[in-house]
Amino acid sequence: MIRKFVKSMTLITDEKEEQPTEIFIVAPSVIKQIFYRELLMSEMNEYTELNPMIYHSLEELPDECLYFTHRIVYCDYTVYQCGFDTENTRVIPISLNRKYEHLNTTWSVVSNKKHL
């Protein structure tokens, strides 16, 4: 009976364990990719990982079923399209003019989620 209880508690706590967040960047040019990448790297913590690939459109992103992490996609306004958000993927439009506003909003969500 005790063994069964311990096993069920272990399963419950394992399910509640936070998954890491993988960050993707989608931008039309390599220069914007590098700029956003440098900006994000300065704000990252141990719960986030920056995907090293270069994506020029949302259609180029790998299928989310290949990933076991939550995904945040920073997408430049020039290539942003509605309808790509899912339960595990959040697409956030970003621009060079308002980059800090978008990053601050998202990082507060990621950091609050990790401290709960």
Automatic annotation (TrEMBL):
Superkingdom per UniProt: Bacteria
Full protein name: Uncharacterized protein
Classification lineage: Bacteria, Bacillati, Bacillota, Bacilli, Lactobacillales
